[in-house]
Amino acid sequence: MTTSRTKIVIVGGGFGGLFCARRLGKADVDVTLVDRAACHVFQPLLYQCATGTLSIGQISRSLREELARHRNVTTLLGEAIDLDADARRVTVRRPDESTYTLDYDVLVVAVGMRQAYFGNEKFAQWAPGMKTLDDALSIRRRLFGAFEIAETLPPGPERDSWLTFAVAGGGPTGVELAGQIREMATRALAHEFHSIEPEEARVLLFDGGNSILGSFAPDLTEKATRTLQQLGVELHLGVHVTDVRPDGVTVTPKDGSPSTDYSARTVLWTAGVEAVPFARRVAEVTGAPSDRAGRIAVDSDLSIPGHPEIFVIGDLVGRDHLPGVAENAMQGGIHAASCIRRGLAGKPRRPFRYRDLGSAAYISRGNALLQAGPIRLAGLLGWLGWGLIHIAFLTGIENRISTLGSWLVTIARASRTDRTFILGGTTSPEHPYTWLKFFHPNMLPVGERETADRSAP
Ligand SMILES: Cc1cc2nc3c(=O)[nH]c(=O)nc-3n(C[C@H](O)[C@H](O)[C@H](O)COP(=O)(O)OP(=O)(O)OC[C@H]3O[C@@H](n4cnc5c(N)ncnc54)[C@H](O)[C@@H]3O)c2cc1C
C-alpha cells in the first residue's frame, strides 16, 4: 500500500536509530528502519557476552519485536550500500547479495562506527574487534578455546603462548576485556582444569598513551590502573602494536626504543574506530566534509550541509567533539525525530544540544569508574552506579531482569553461565570446522589458507 505520508528511512538500529524510530512511532509519517543485523545490540555489555557472563539474547533484541507496537514503523534486514541523494534513494543489500531500494523524503544515517586497524586490515584475521555480536562470540570461542587447547599441551612455550592474551587499546573496552579475562582465569576457571593453572594466564594490555582510560579524570585513571595491576593485568603504555600474527604480536615503543615480540595465541583489538563504507559513501555523494576516521561534519541541527533532508546521528557525527557514547546517539536520535515532527507542524528546527550525563567503565568485580560532572566515583560506589545505569538502558524488561539475575549468580558463585562456544559450521563432511581458521590456518586445504578468516566474523 502506498501513502502520501512523509517517508522516513533510518539506516542503523543502534542507540541512535532505535531512539529516533521510537520517537517517530505514532507520528504522521511512514518509517522504515533498515539494519544489517536486524537487532539492536547493547554494545556496552558486549565484553560480558564475550567472557561468558551474559548471553547474546540478554544484550540484544530483535528490532522487529522492539518496534512491533509502532504500526507506522517497518523494520527491514539489509546493509545500505549506496545513496542517490538527488533521487533520494538508498540501495540496500540482502545477505544473499541481491539488492533492493528504499525511497525517502528524510534520511537518518545512524550506522555507528566499526573497528579500525589503521591500514593494517590483515591484523583483523588474528585480532578481532569488539563491535558486534559476531565479534563477541568469536572472542568467546578464542578465549575459552585457548584454555581448552592449553589443557591438552605439555608444559612449555607452546602452552604458555595459549595462556597469554594480548589486548590492543587501553580505552574502556580494552580495560574491561583485560580485567574480565584475568577475573575469569582466577575465579570461574581456577579449579576446573587438571593440567594447567588458569590463574597463570598472562594478560597484556598495550596502549599508545601515557595512561589507560584517557577520557577519565587522572585520579580515577590511577585507581583503575592500581586495580588492574592487582588483578594481574600487565600494562604496557606508550607503545603501539605494530604487527599481529597467529602466534603473537610485535610492540613498538613510541620513544624509538627497539620493538619487542610477545608470544600470544589470542590477540584482541580495541584500538580505534572508523566509519563504515556506507557512511563514507554518504559523505562522498553529498560532498560533506569528514575527518580522518570518516565522521561527517554536520550543521547545528545534525543535518548534512546543503541536505536538510539527511540527518547524521550518533558515533558518526563529526561536530563539537561530541563523544562516541550511547547517550550522544540516543539524544541525537530523539533530536532528529523532533526536527522531523517540528517540520510536519511547520515549525523551525532547533539546534542539537548535547547534555553530557557522564561516563562509566567496569574494571573488575565490585570496582568501576563513574564520572558525571563533579561526581567522580570509583570502587564499590562506582560499581553500583555503573550497574544501575546499564540495567536502566538495556532494551526490554526481560533482558533487564535476566541480566540482573546473571550478575547476582556471577557475584555469588564466581560462575559464568554462558561459556558455551560453537566450532563454526561445516560446508561438507570433508571441510574442517571454521574455527580452525582462527587457530590453525596451516591445517586448512591450501586454496583456503589465504582467505582464511576473511569471511569469518
Ligand atoms: C564494546 C563497547 C563498549 C561500550 N561501552 C560504552 C559505555 O559503557 N557507555 C557508553 O555510553 N557507550 C559505550 N560504548 C559506545 C556506544 O555503544 C556507542 O556510542 C553507541 O552504540 C553508538 O550508537 P550509534 O547508534 O551511533 O551506533 P551503533 O550503536 O553502533 O549502531 C549502528 C547500527 O547500524 C547498523 N549498521 C551499520 N552499517 C550499516 C549499514 N550499512 N546498513 C544497515 N545497517 C548498518 C549496525 O548493525 C548497528 O545496529 C561502547 C561501545 C563498544 C563497542
Describe the protein.
- Keywords: FAD, Flavoprotein, Oxidoreductase.
- One of its GO terms (biological process) is aerobic electron transport chain.
- Belongs to the NADH dehydrogenase family.
- The structure is a single chain.
- It contains 13 helices and 23 strands.
- It is α/β, with parallel strands linked by helices and 457 residues long.
- It has two domains: 7-115 and 274-345, 3-Layer(bba) Sandwich (FAD/NAD(P)-binding domain); 121-271 and 359-387, FAD/NAD(P)-binding domain.
- The strands form seven sheets. Strands 5-2-1-9-20-19 form a six-stranded mixed beta sheet, with helices on one face. It has a four-stranded parallel beta sheet with strand order 13-12-11-17. The protein has a three-stranded antiparallel beta sheet with strand order 6-7-8.
- Strand 14 (239-245) and strand 15 (248-253) form a beta hairpin.
- Helix 1 packs parallel to helix 9.
- Flavin-adenine dinucleotide (FAD) binds at residues 11-17, 34-37, 43-44, 46-47, 79-80, 110-112, 130-131, 172-173, 276, 278, 314-315, 324-327, 329, 360.
Please tag this protein with its features.
457 residues; FAD/NAD(P)-binding domain; disordered C terminus; alpha/beta; globular
Task: Briefly characterize the structure.
With 457 residues, the chain is an alpha/beta fold. The protein has helices at 15-24, 46-50, 63-66, 133-151, 157-162, 172-188, 218-231, 277-286, 326-344, 379-393, 397-413, 435-439, 446-449; strands at 6-11, 29-35, 39-41, 60-62, 73-77, 79-84, 89-93, 99-103, 106-109, 113-115, 164-168, 202-207, 233-237, 239-245, 248-253, 260-263, 266-269, 273-275, 303-304, 307-312, 359-364, 367-372, 375-377.
